[in-house]
Each structure stands twice: as structure tokens, then as C-alpha cells.
């Protein structure tokens, strides 16, 4: 699994980030073809937040909490190689995120010498816009599943073609047909070709004959 946020190596979009039983139930309701109204009954348990996608976590200002819910620091999220993160043993996975510490509120949890360093922090304890990144991801996954179901239901509601043969579209008349009608030919009387206006009295029958010869079997 890649240690970067939103990079390649994550599962397909339909199953990405199924981090808890709630999202698994919603996914199963969608993939089994059941009525999504059953999944809607689960929605009260979905975190009340905007659902910030993982790819948008980068450079977001966040607040850090410890396991007891106490505010211990502030920083910004980054997508970096895990080798650059302090005390990281391999890829961070989906449960941690790299945070660039910019301020500490607890010397016990974040010593002063860690300020301006990159550290790994659990997504459940990293908050942005009033919710943890874990909750943002859960809500984003729910939103994606809901949208996928809506698109699927919309496509099923459309009438399928009975066969592969489509009726030809009603094409607009070719321009040469317009040039051969009587109205178009009579418009010649209003054209100015030269100082003598010699084309205006030109015989209409000859004009039609010339045009037929010019545009006969034409696709113009």
C-alpha cells in the first residue's frame, strides 16, 4: 500500500476506504442491487461533515488530538514518502497521515523539538473543518456510493434499444435543393452584379438550368 495520500495502489473506487462496518453495509446494499432506501436508513450513522476526499487533505490546516480527546498540536497534511516521516516503519497505510507540525499544545504529546517535523498521526485524531479525517473519508465514501447508485438507477430507467438498428436522423435539406426552388431563383432579381445589373433580367429558366447542371448529384 502506498504511503501517499490518494496515490495509486489503493483498492478500486467502489471499495476504497471501507473502513468500518457502516460503509460495508452501504456498499453491500448497493452492490447486491437492493433498494437503496434500505441503505438510506443507515445514513443517520454517517458522520455529519462535508466529506472531504482524501486527495484534498494535502496542505489542509489540521488540529491534532491525543487518545483522550485533548488538543495537543496543529499542523498541515502532506503527501510524502514515509521515509521522510519520523518513526515511520514502512508505508503509513490508510489509518495514518503525515502531518507537518507547526505548533504544540502539549509537550508530553508533541515535544518542542518535533515542531516543523513530519510525523505520522492517526486519521481519527486529526481534525479538519470540525471533523476527523477518518469521518471525512467515511462520509466521502458514502457520498460516492450514493452517487453511484443514483447513476445506476438513472441508467436503468432509460428505455433500452430494442435492437442495434437506429432510425436515421432527420437530416436538414441540402443547400442545393434550396437553390433550385422558385423562391431562391426569383431572388436573383434583387442581386447587384455590376453597374448594369445584367443578372437581374436574366431568364429564370436558364438560371434554373445552370443550377441543376452545377449541383446535380451534389452533396452540397
Topology:
Elements: H1 21-31, H2 36-40, E1 61-65, E2 71-78, E3 96-104, E4 118-122, E5 126-128, E6 131-132, H3 133-157, H4 175-179, H5 182-186, H6 204-215
Antiparallel strand pairs: 1-2, 1-5, 2-3, 3-4, 5-6
Helix pairs in contact: 1-3
Polypeptide structure, described:
With 220 residues, the protein is an alpha+beta fold. It folds into two domains: 21-155, no CATH class; 175-215, no CATH class. The protein has six helices and six strands; from the N terminus they run ααββββββαααα. The chain has a six-stranded antiparallel beta sheet with strand order 4-3-2-1-5-6. α1 packs parallel to α3. The longest helix has 25 residues, at 133-157. The chain starts with 20 loop residues before the first helix and ends in a 5-residue tail after the last helix. Mean pLDDT is 74; it is low at 1-24 and 26-42.
Mean pLDDT: 74
Provide the succession of SSEs.
HHEEEEEEHHHH
Number of domains: 2
**Poorly predicted ranges (pLDDT <50, ≥5 residues)?**
1-24, 26-42
Largest sheet: 6 strands, antiparallel
Rg calc: 34 Å
Roughly how much helix do the residues carry, as a percent range?
A: 25-40%
Judging from the principal axes of the Cα atoms, what is the shape? rod-shaped
Number of H- or I-type helical stretches: 6
- Order the strands across the largest sheet as they lie in space: 4-3-2-1-5-6
Number of β-strand runs: 6
How many angstroms does the end-to-end distance come to? 60 Å
| Secondary-structure-derived class | alpha+beta
Strand percentage lies at 5-15%
